[in-house]
Amino acid sequence: MHWNEHSVICTYRVRADRRQDFIALLERHWPTLHAAGLVSETPAVHFEAVPSEDPHDEKGPTFVEIFSWANAEAPHMAHRMPEVMAIWEPMGGMVEARDGRPPMEFPRFRPLALGGA
């Protein structure tokens, strides 16, 4: 796998009644971005929060998606592509702010090479 300086760790806090619908969109998300040439060749990695009573854990359905944009302009270009917006717009209606956190977060990261990794 090759990550780049345009990697994003997306967090989606999904309404409980929309979990399955959201998963269906999430399945199409990276393939659509890839077909449009917006992301690197490294496939997205997905995680679902584990339900627990631990106060540090997410409450309710929460998904994380990690992928690398092809370049710095790609996320801006995506907003002008109907095939991407056909996924993003419905996603927006399926998420909610929770525990003082926003419905969705998209911070960027770059790889950090450490000695043992």
From TrEMBL:
Q: Which organism is it from?
A: Sphingomonas parva
SUPFAM superfamilies hit by this protein: Dimeric alpha+beta barrel
What protein does this entry describe? Answer: ABM domain-containing protein
